[in-house]
Specification:
By secondary structure, the chain is an alpha+beta fold. It has a domain at 144-267: 2-Layer Sandwich (Alpha-Beta Plaits). 46% of the residues lie in helices and 15% in strands. It is built from 8 helices and 8 strands; from the N terminus they run αααααβαββββββααβ. It has a 5-stranded antiparallel sheet with strand order 3-2-7-1-8. A hairpin with a 2-residue loop joins β4 (205-208) and β5. α6 (174-186) packs antiparallel against α8. The longest helix has 67 residues, at 56-122. The protein starts with 6 loop residues before the first helix and ends in a 34-residue tail after the last strand. It comes from Micromonospora maris. InterPro entries: DUF881. The chain crosses the membrane at residues 51-73. Residues 277-301 are annotated as: Disordered.
């Protein structure tokens, strides 16, 4: 059904549309004003689009900017070989020093065994036995016996929660190793080592960035916490807080956690500790007048 535009509407200037409006819109999408402007420009003989004009100052700036970019690129490519050579030299030094450290550690172990043999040769049987027991209990002697091994390993990368629970990342944290070691001590462990690093009364387990340090020595996964102790140690540890927590974390994040009984474990001795002893502070000197005020060298505030 069509509508007719009335004369009154035309005289009043009322805008009305016929059913052919959509057809006309798709047929002539360009606004008539643009078309009129293009025709007027063509009659004047002008170009459809004005050309670009560059001032001399702009041209100089463009040339200078291009020159600076070329110089920077040339310097960067020229220094790349020097940086690569310096990097390879540093890597070689690190590997060499690591090898030297391993050799010195092995030599230190040999000398320690030789010292122990010489010491026992000079002591009587009871004294040597007592010394071995003290060394084993303090971590300064190698021990052997039945025990438990707790194994922890990082989960798949990028997998922070299988069950949607907020239980932390799927990587083993230093606090996890702390909890395992403490609960093993509580379960009756007599000697503990983490990846071959023997724990003593002064041992520390901490992190430095993404690395885990045991007595300032880095350890990498999988992590094995080995403990020597009585037969009941495994059962007591299985009921500990760290074991229950780690099983929950393993279930929710994909982290690997396991406990197994092992016969005939051997744990190495810990390095000789560097003990520092406290000394009494020197009391401030008293002035000859007897007033009790400290002298300038006494450190008074």
């Amino acid at each position: 059904m069509s509508e007719r535009v009335g004369d009154d509407d035309e005289r009043r200037g009322v805008r009305t549309f016929t059913p052919d409006f959509l057809t006309e819109l798709f047929r002539n999408p360009l606004d008539p004003g643009y078309e009129d402007a293009a025709q007027a420009r063509a009659r004047r003989g002008g170009s459809p689009r004005p050309g670009w004009t560059v001032s001399p100052v702009s041209l100089v700036l463009i040339v200078l900017l291009g020159f600076l970019c070329a110089v920077a690129y040339r310097q960067t490519t020229a220094e790349e070989s020097g940086r690569a050579q310096a990097r390879s030299g540093l890597v070689a030094q690190i590997k060499q020093r690591q090898a030297d450290t391993d050799a010195m550690s092995e030599r230190a172990d040999q000398l320690r065994d030789e010292v122990n043999r010489q010491r026992e040769a000079q002591l009587s049987g009871s004294q040597a036995s007592r010394l071995r027991n003290l060394a084993a209990s303090t971590g300064l002697g190698r021990v052997r016996g039945d025990g438990v091994v707790v194994r922890l390993e990082d989960g798949p990368s990028g997998q922070d929660g299988l069950g949607g629970a907020n239980v932390g990342p799927s990587q083993v944290l230093y606090s996890d190793l702390q909890g395992v070691a403490n609960d093993l001590w509580g379960a009756g462990a007599e000697a503990i080592a983490i990846n071959g690093q023997r724990l003593t009364a002064t041992s520390t387990i901490r992190n430095a960035g993404q690395a885990i340090l045991v007595d300032f020595r880095p350890v990498t996964g999988p992590y094995e916490v080995s403990a020597i102790g009585p037969r009941s140690m495994r059962e007591r540890y299985e009921a500990s807080r760290s074991a229950l927590t780690m099983r929950k974390v393993a279930q929710d994040t994909g982290l690997s956690f396991g406990v197994r009984q092992v016969d005939d474990l051997t744990l190495p001795a810990a390095p000789e500790p560097r003990l520092r002893y406290a000394e009494p502070a020197v009391s401030p000197s008293v002035s000859p007048s007897g007033g009790g005020s400290p002298s300038p060298s006494g450190g008074g505030r």
